[in-house]
Amino acid sequence: MDKSKSASTEVMQPPENSGFRVLIVDDNVSFQKLLALSLSMQPLIGVIDFANSGESAIKKANALTYDLIFMDAMMPGIDGYETCTRLRKNPIYKNTPIIMVTGLTTPLDEAKGIIAGSTTYVTKPVQQVPFKELLNRELALLTYRKNNKVS
Question: Structure pTM?
Answer without folding.
Answer: 0.87
